[in-house]
Amino acid sequence: MPRIAGIDIPEQKRTEVALTYIFGVGRRNVKQILAEANVNADKRAKDLATEEVARLQRAIDKINTEGNLRKQIRENIERLKRIGTYRGLRHAMGLPVHGQRTRTNARTKRGKRKTIGAMKKEELTKHETPTKE
């Protein structure tokens, strides 16, 4: 399994797809990396020679990936929170940041539903305890 930028890339996938397993390398900039490293995109990751892996490593080192990129993103979010911007407040409250609706969707950010207000009749009868008269 070739190891590039501290990540074991999958052997069975094409190099073009396997490189996208590295955080910060997407479908768009993988073409530029492969062109710079002079590596065939259709070649499987297990078939890469050690010199090709080294060239890919050098090409990927020029862009911000993995730990450095995660740190930069985290610092940017902390800066937004610290200066009190709207986006920073949305991050702090755990709500969608980019203007999405929250009345019905946004389950990923807001979490599991919590019932607030009146219960339905069936649920109310389940919770009532029978009284002896």
UniProtKB/TrEMBL annotation:
GO terms for molecular function: rRNA binding; structural constituent of ribosome; tRNA binding. Residues 100-115 have a biased composition (Basic residues). Keywords: Ribonucleoprotein, Ribosomal protein, RNA-binding, rRNA-binding, tRNA-binding. Residues 91-133 are annotated as: Disordered. One of its GO terms (cellular component) is small ribosomal subunit. Gene3D superfamilies: 1.10.8.50, 30s ribosomal protein s13, domain 2. Residues 119-133 have a biased composition (Basic and acidic residues). Located at the top of the head of the 30S subunit, it contacts several helices of the 16S rRNA. In the 70S ribosome it contacts the 23S rRNA (bridge B1a) and protein L5 of the 50S subunit (bridge B1b), connecting the 2 subunits; these bridges are implicated in subunit movement. Contacts the tRNAs in the A and P-sites. Belongs to the universal ribosomal protein uS13 family. This is Small ribosomal subunit protein uS13. It comes from Candidatus Chisholmbacteria bacterium RIFCSPHIGHO2_01_FULL_52_32.
